[in-house]
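Thread title: Can someone regenerate the structure for this chain?

I was given the following input by a collaborator and told the matching structure tokens would be attached. They weren't. Posting the sequence so someone can regenerate them.
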Amino acid sequence: MTDVNVLCTQIHSRFSAWIENATVAFGQLTVEVKPEHLLDICRILRDDADFEFKLLVDVCGVDYLHYGLDDWQTEKTTATGFGRGVTRDLMRESAAKPCRFAVVYHLLSLTKNHRVRLRVYIPDEKELMVDSVMDIWPSANWYEREVFDLFGILFRGHPDLRRIMTDYGFVGHPFRKDFPLIGKVEARYDAKLKRVVYEPVSIDARVLEPKVIRHDNRYLNEQGESSHAK
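Best answer:
Regenerated them for you:
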């Protein structure tokens, strides 16, 4: 079994011109690949005797919209309890991601018994497209269709890129962070038309705000009654 740090050093020295970075965190190697060199590095990782990543475990999309923003702080506590409802000017923000969307590939070498995660950022939000890896790993077929369906990311060279999780009349891409939780349309079967029809969502959007009502002398009025009492 190849040590993950040794593998990181091998990949970084071998593909330094094709990658942005290679890091190890929590025992997992992540390699950020330049989009134009995705197919080149994938072929070598699959065929080279030093790597032999024959198995594509997964392909998934990522939406980094609002990445690192924290509306709720529940990790720290004080004498008055957990802090809730932190205002926006107090929100923590991690290191900003270079792009909103990315595609992540998980590879496994059965002979070497090591794993690697490739991440490709998509620089142009108006043209969300990366190269398909189907010619390298045919199992990418359904994975890439799923990413297209849920995130709207296109895969150049895919022979049959169409929705796989939602139906053909679905509007939008539900795994995007700005997609409304209630959706955009709803489907029902119309007995008169004898077909499924799509209509605007009839559910009223609402914001859930957690509230805790405690009996506290700070909230008593002059008569000694709770301000929450009716």
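The domain at 4-64+99-179 is CATH 3.30.460.80 (Beta Polymerase; domain 2).
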